[in-house]
Amino acid sequence: DALPIFYDGVGFSTVGASNVCQKLIGRHWNEEMLNEACRNIVAEVSLPGSAPGGMVEYRRTLTVSFFFRFFLQVAQELKQRLPSYQKMPERFSSALEEFHRETHQTAQVYQDVSPDRKST
Questions:
Q1: DSSP codes of every residue in 73-119
Q2: pTM for this one?
Q3: Is the pLDDT reported for residue 20 higher than 70?
């Protein structure tokens, strides 16, 4: 069995979380496993404070957020396929909802100015 987890854009090159993967194989897909996986991801996918590109805290948070979303998608799929599967807490459900933003419309209006008019 394999559960490869890779992150791109958090370091100089693609970073694999192989220790986290090994610890997750064979585990029950539940909230306890999620908490442990998140702690291990933070420990294994480390970014130095001087990482190129900056925004280190944002990128650290993003690595955990991506795993969290993946976890919820798998849990949702398990629930659909296995009715006896433990339902995830309702407080997590909004993380799987599509995010829609209104499309903003703008307009720029220009005034034609004759070429012989001097600027002031």
A1: HHHHHHHHH-TTSPPPPGGGGGGGSPP--PPP----------TTSPP
A2: 0.69
A3: yes
